[in-house]
């Protein structure tokens, strides 16, 4: 099996593995199978030394690789042929060898894009036939009840191929995956309760990347098939995998949060309380929150969720589908990863919360990722969350689920203890639309800073707008503390007004102001159809009157800019016009309240006294019907799709790099596979 060679120290000979001897002959261009008809059967029973193959290929120049192409082509074909045998170990070793070979050649290709590495692997005229055969065998391995390790390695191989280049559209191998689809076997994995536990994440990641490949026909076959997918078990499996991934991040964040603040002294607590008592919006100072790396690297799962929500209307039915965590907890790797969490009595594991659904978990994840928008990666993840929420609130059926009073869930939104605003959402079970409004308020109050994330604020306000428009169109009265929303919107308006000079140099804050004011116009015009009681409508007027100086100053600011030469003149003019009903309310009630105070000799009225004045003077108030406040989302759909598409392309490139980095082809990884071979074989 091996021969002795002198060590570098000269003291003791060392053993050289037989497989290394074969590799040495192979890379010298020798015919390794000469005079041995059973060579390849024996070869694939030897544990491959992955690091040796990678090192040798890395040392070779392109000219030397071309000289060795006959041997490389033979090895490539023999790896594929071995997939047909019944010996699981041979298949495992051939998959590892094939993955290593392809990965090493892709590495050369990334350095020198002119290197035609596929012609090194296969004779050019046979390329289509060989890849068709290869992908057909991959289909079989993913579909048949093979051992879990084979499926796992097959997925690793396919991911290695797909992530071979940073830009998916520059990957020469992907045209074969477009014509020889692996969509069906991947969705079958998702529909299997056992295999989805082991392979669900990789399957969804692979599907996500393949859906973002641009094809010559401009129609990606994977996108088409996803849009037509209507199998309930497959869609639920897809949803389950996404929820598991997001849930794991939420638990990790909770664990780190407890660890970070468990050592807080009484002085930290005291200063926090004082800060809350003296709350002012955090304007110039930015939050110093460090999110764990895993939270920042969830782009692949978020894109997968976006693709499902955006392309498949049937997927909306899974958003509130209750899942259990039993299969997830039984996965050996998950059990190992979760050990630190389960050992902490302060934390809850998935099994503690027996039933959950994707939307609840997604809201919780959003509350984490939206805390930090300073870095590009975090801002992109946060923005994609807003895009997903926009797509959900655009859908009539999803809105009906979120407003269903029979579907009430407890949603624990995470918040940083460094935040100093007083909004504390009710944590009792509620319709999901109410939880979403809480999430939007949390974001709104938590990011009023010098570098205002305007695009995210625009999305945030538009999501609130969509929810209210749905309620208006369907006469839905959501039981919610609307005063929290109104006061938050007014606080945001006050911030925009206060820091207009600094902010307007970099962005158009008037468009955001228009969206905010239009939400008030919706309530003013259609409040009798939206609000749960007449007293809520009274409270709306009370808030407008109480904070009238904010609206007065916004009107003065917008009027000044609408009459001057300014790049934001049109937006300022529109904002000024949107304030017509709010100003009518203020101009109508302020004199009447002043008269009442003078008549009753009251200097400091209580809220109920002002509300009484409001109720008694509705009849003499004249308002205009502002249909524009309903908004036209259809007219903005093309711009929305364009901006979302640009964001997705940017994030897909990062996912490709992260996935390639996470793929392991080392001997350590292989040794672990062999040790657990019996554990992973044929689960039942």
TrEMBL record:
One Pfam family of this chain: ARMH3_C
Coiled coil: none
GO cellular component terms, semicolon-separated: cytosol; membrane
Keywords linked to the UniProt accession: Membrane, Transmembrane, Transmembrane helix
Main location: membrane
Domain annotation Armadillo-like helical: ranges: 425-663
Superkingdom of origin organism: Eukaryota
Entries under InterPro entries matching the protein: ARMD3-like, ARMH3_C
Subcellular localization, as worded in the UniProt entry: Membrane
Keyword Transmembrane helix (UniProt): yes
PANTHER family cross-referenced by the UniProt entry: ARMADILLO-LIKE HELICAL DOMAIN-CONTAINING PROTEIN 3 (PTHR13608:SF3)
Full protein name: Armadillo-like helical domain-containing protein
Species this protein is from: Macrosiphum euphorbiae (potato aphid)
